[in-house]
Design a protein that fits this description.
15 helices; about 50% helix; elongated; alpha/beta; OB fold (Dihydrolipoamide Acetyltransferase, E2P); about 475 residues; 2-enoyl-CoA Hydratase, Chain A, domain 1
Length: about 475
């Protein structure tokens, strides 16, 4: 039985390694499968473009950062001409916002942040993202602003901190030739702007109802990077007819034809995005750490009930949520912890260890697929997750059966205590020649005659010795 368990563990490990090896092949096929018509479309449409669009809805966290990173890489390999981020956010983590801003700035693909649909907001961190985008757009009935920083629940509690945020906002506004005075007011007086005012003051480039309207307005526009009057190389969206009025242009992107039968590619969020967004929530992280600490304490006092396993899992998730552990490191820890728990299960047969091992494998799988340098399809990711879950549940079922059978054996051994049958009497159920079956203590047992001679069926016998589960008997005279 132990060999079977080890084989199952080996299979699970090989299965995980196989997924990594299959990844390389999947990457090569990814865009061939996802974009079979791109080349044919471009052959038929002289000005057709590829537009990738993605939604950021809710707080901006490190899970959002990972998602944006993954999206930009996929957009690069898809040869996207424009990436549009539909934005609706109250703000988010400063580090995540800054990292996304830096990704926007170094992106080789024009980035458009589009506050849409109707009723959406780009408050706080959302406004910072707009300042770092190549094209800023808003839909009717939306709002941007309220970017004054908050520390320890108080607005602008540190003048130094406010100064840093002010510099961040104006620096990126300057890199995109936007109104720096208005940009400063987002931070200093919590200014809010509606689409019309934002457009008139030079904070955004386009007001559009939807994505199609946005692309239509880009038709006669060109994105240039030039020596701005501010003394820096700045990006600016200008009418194509006016490009000649700007000097020192080092780069330009013409959007002519972008609304003419564009290939629209919607970015499917990674499977684990929602899980990660829960883990990085500060309230959830705090609860995980508290549960983890108390779980370990309770587990040390009352081992065998699984509290310590729950504690370890919660601590790993909490550290991942705080950013102390990266998600990839956390996933490796989960796999290692799960493997150790399975090995311990072989010794203890407590079942709760196997259950914890299954949970660790599943959590590890969720955290590791996909990473930003994995170019795999949504369906492939779903297949991976389902496969890992099915294999884990299969192992869990096997251990449940194993523990059940072991428990039954222990129960029988405890109730009958085979060694106590020595001296008991019974009768032979079959001829013992010299082996056969006897009835002792209302149970049938394998038996063997003491002297190797025949004991006929129905003969009264006495147990003189026990060897394993076989009774050594002799006839009663």
């Amino acid at each position: 039985m132990r060999k079977i368990v080890i084989l199952l563990l080996g299979f699970l490990i090989i299965f995980q390694l196989g997924l990594v090896l299959a990844q390389n092949q999947a990457n090569q096929q990814y865009f061939a499968n996802c974009y079979p018509d791109i080349q044919s479309i471009r052959a038929k449409q002289a000005f057709s473009k590829t537009v990738m669009y993605i939604t950021i809805d809710g707080e901006i966290t490190r899970s959002t950062e990972l998602m944006v990173q993954d999206a930009l890489i996929k957009g690069f390999y898809a040869q996207a001409d424009l990436i549009v981020f539909f934005l609706n956010t109250p703000g988010g983590e400063l580090s995540a916002v800054e990292n996304i801003m830096n990704m926007f700035e170094v992106s080789g693909i024009p980035i458009c942040v589009f506050v849409a649909p109707y009723g959406s907001t780009a408050w706080s961190g959302g406004t910072y993202l707009m300042m770092a985008s190549h094209i800023a757009a808003m839909s009717i009935g939306t709002i941007m602003g309220s970017a004054q920083p908050v520390q320890s629940g108080q607005i602008g509690s540190s003048l130094e901190y406010v100064g840093q945020m002010l510099s961040l906002m104006t620096f990126h506004a300057r890199l995109h030739d936007r109104n720096q005075t208005i940009a400063q007011q987002f931070v200093t007086i919590n200014l809010n702007l509606l689409p019309g005012t934002a457009n008139n003051t030079g904070m955004i480039d386009i007001v559009a109802k939807d994505l199609f309207g946005l692309l239509q307005q880009l038709e006669d526009k060109t994105l240039i990077r030039y020596d701005s009057p501010n003394g820096v190389l700045a990006w600016k969206l200008v009418p194509t007819a006016d490009v000649g009025n700007y000097s020192g242009i080092v780069q330009q992107v013409d959007f002519a034809g972008i609304s003419d039968s564009p290939f629209l590619y919607y970015y499917d969020k990674p499977v684990q995005y929602n899980v990660l967004s829960i883990i990085v929530n500060p309230y959830v992280t705090y609860i995980l750490l508290i549960v983890g600490l108390f779980g370990i304490i309770i587990g040390l006092k009352t081992p065998g009930f699984g509290a310590e396993i729950l504690g370890v899992i919660s601590i790993i998730l909490g550290f991942a949520g705080l950013g102390i552990l990266g998600f990839n490191i956390a996933s490796i820890l989960f796999f290692v912890t799960g493997f150790v728990l399975f090995l311990l299960e072989l010794k203890t047969q407590a079942f709760v260890l196997a259950t914890g091992g299954v949970a660790c494998f599943i959590l590890g799988a969720i955290l590791i697929f996909p990473t930003s340098n994995w170019l795999i399809t949504y369906n492939f990711i779903q297949t991976v997750i389902i496969s890992v879950v099915v294999v884990s549940l299969f192992i869990s079922g096997f251990f449940a059966y194993l523990v059940y059978k072991v428990g039954e054996t222990r129960k029988i051994a405890k109730e009958l205590d085979i060694a106590s049958l020595v001296g008991k009497t019974g009768k032979s159920k079959t001829d013992l020649t010299p082996k056969g079956t006897v009835l002792v203590a209302s149970e049938e047992w394998s038996a063997k005659s003491h002297d190797g001679k025949l004991i006929p069926e129905g003969k009264k016998i006495k147990v003189v010795e026990v060897k394993g589960l076989t009774l050594i008997v002799e006839p009663v005279k």
